[in-house]
Amino acid sequence: DGGITQSPKYLFRKEGQNVTLSCEQNLNHDAMYWYRQDPGQGLRLIYYSQIVNDFQKGDIAEGYSVSREKKESFPLTVTSAQKNPTAFYLCASSISISYNEQFFGPGTRLTVL
Amino acid sequence: AQTVTQSQPEMSVQEAETVTLSCTYDTSENNYYLFWYKQPPSRQMILVIRQEAYKQQNATENRFSVNFQKAAKSFSLKISDSQLGDTAMYFCALGYGANSKLTFGKGITLSVRP
After folding, report:
1. Is the CB of A110 inside 8 Å of chain B's CB atoms?
2. How far is A48 from chain B (nearest CA, A)?
3. Local confidence pLDDT in tens for the 113 residues of chain A
4. Cα separation of B77 and B71, whole Å?
5. Half-sphere exposure of A112 toward its Cβ, with a 13 Å CA cutoff?
6. Which one, of A6, A25, A30, lies nearest residue A97 by Cα?
7. Which residues contact B1 (CB under 8 A, 6 or more apart)?
8. Which of A58, A97, A107 has its CB closest to that of B100?
9. Which of A4, B3, B8, B58 could form a disulfide with A105 if both were Cys (CB 3.0 to 4.6 A apart)?
10. Strand duo B64-69 + B60-61: pairing
């Protein structure tokens, strides 16, 4: 089955540690996205990538980093510089940057203790 | 800048009845798309319906339909014959042109009562 996988579903880290969230897709989509969801805030864009080896900052990129070495993978690193990292993180993909419809993974709940 | 506003934080509807969820938006673009996404308790985001701004005809998908009022910049979602499985958070989203970044509203929590 084609789709987007995110692992793990729940992640716990100590304050001050970097943590990497995984996102893999087998839909052959060019564009991939990372969103953060907080209660009452909707979804806010962290980073997006139009193509391999290219990515752009979204609205709330501070304290986060990404890489896009393979078409299928778009991992997100939450660094110690992110002041409030506890949140639900969603990864999405679309056929291309010019095709608006996005497909989402199941999400990762990150809790920083 | 694009904005999407969902002013109702919560709504409740009796099973089998009809409910309408409101969304307004603002954009200076002429070529854009509007979406409703559903997020059930599992938190998996699911696309419900999509509307291209250049199309005058309102989109429909089974029990889901939209009322797209371009001049008023309004995009409401009507759910007919509500089912318990419709209980979820619903997000309105706006995308445009060659840039498929989506702007999301804050969402509305819909509860369907048995």
Report:
1. no
2. 8
3. 669 999 999 999 998 899 999 999 999 999 999 999 998 888 999 999 988 999 999 999 999 999 999 999 999 999 988 889 999 999 999 887 666 789 999 999 999 98
4. 17
5. 17
6. A30
7. none
8. A97
9. A4
10. antiparallel
